[in-house]
């Protein structure tokens, strides 16, 4: 039985919380779409990740596993995490995609997913439900989660 997206994210957040301590739609900065981290606004998120306005049941649109980083420019732990995610995007060389969502610019999107703590990192495996972790995560732990959750290795 498929779960409601909010329930999935909430369950994932609660499950992974122990691992580590509205309406603005700015154009997305696609960065290097071939192999870089991609910043998403609401419309790009709906196009590339999940159309939460049409579907309540999770239906990932991507063609490879993904990580979505919900962040804010003023957030210290977010600033520490950002270069790690850029390294991961490069090191995994096209085997996964890292997306970033600025919670200040995409408040409606953040509210739809119940983002209340920053950073919130959502791991999206292929053909499975997404899982999330709250707060800064060291690179070694991110790598382990990528292997365990996304089933991707370097």
List keywords for this structure.
Glutaredoxin; 34% helix; 5 helices; alpha/beta; 154 residues; five-stranded mixed β-sheet
Quick take:
The chain has helices at 5-16, 42-48, 76-91, 107-112, 139-150; strands at 38-40, 66-71, 97-102, 120-124, 131-134. By secondary structure, it is α/β, with parallel strands linked by helices.
How would you portray this structure in words?
By secondary structure, the chain is α/β, with parallel strands linked by helices. It contains 5 helices and 5 strands, in the order αβαβαβαββα. The protein has a single domain (5-150), classed as Glutaredoxin (3-Layer(aba) Sandwich). Helices cover 34% and strands 16% of the residues. The chain has a 5-stranded mixed sheet. β2 (66-71), α3 (76-91) and β3 (97-102) form a beta-alpha-beta unit. It is globular and about 35 Å long.
Q: Give the number of helices.
A: 5
Q: Level of helix content?
A: 25-40%
* Shape call: globular
Strand content: 15-25%
Q: What would you report as the Rg, rounded to the nearest angstrom?
A: 14 Å
Q: Please summarize the sheet with the most strands.
A: 5 strands, mixed
CATH topology: the name is Glutaredoxin
Q: Secondary-structure element order, as H and E?
A: HEHEHEHEEH
How far the N terminus sits from the C terminus, by CA atoms, comes to 33 Å
Report the average pLDDT across residues.
83
Which ranges are low-confidence, i.e. pLDDT below 50, for 5 or more consecutive residues?
6-33
Give the structural class: alpha/beta
The fourth-level CATH homologous superfamily is Glutaredoxin
Strand element count: 5
- Work out the oligomeric state of the chains in this entry: single chain
**CATH-level-2 architecture:** 3-Layer(aba) Sandwich
